[in-house]
User: What shape does this take?
Amino acid sequence: MSIQSAKSYAQSLFDTALKHDKEKKVLKDLLAIHDSVNAQKKSYLNVVNHPKLSKDARMDMISKSFGEANKYVVNTIKVMASNNKLDLLPYLYEAYEEVYNEHLGIRKATVESTYKLFETELERIGQVFVQKLGLNKLIMKNEVNPSLIGGVRIKIDTKVYDGSIKTKLNDIKQRVVRH
Assistant: This one.
């Protein structure tokens, strides 16, 4: 299971939260649930998915476990339980955060480089892509990848912008082989 599988639940939850101006509160509650569930993921999911647990008992357990959370969060988890999709619960926060960030024009980017970049270098790269993609903000993470030889490779969502020397050398190689 993955974030993509949980995205429809996250989108519905976000739409409801946005309608009631609770999107930040929902994000905060989902983070707390995410941390709690992931700390005990296997045992929690085994209990709530137990075949001998009645639907009413499952819903009661969800209400007691997450009763402090926003009612839209609890209702979404109950819908997931009704659809036998509680295995997606560990991914709900990340999927919601993705939908939340998309709404605000925020994306996450991974910048691969041959050495650890300075914050100013990351900021400059971020500014270029914020303007290029029409975003409000880009949350940057730097990963060192010596196999690039030089340059950078930037991953934003599913798109890759590759300015690495390794790729440029491979492109040259392909052109030479064709001629």
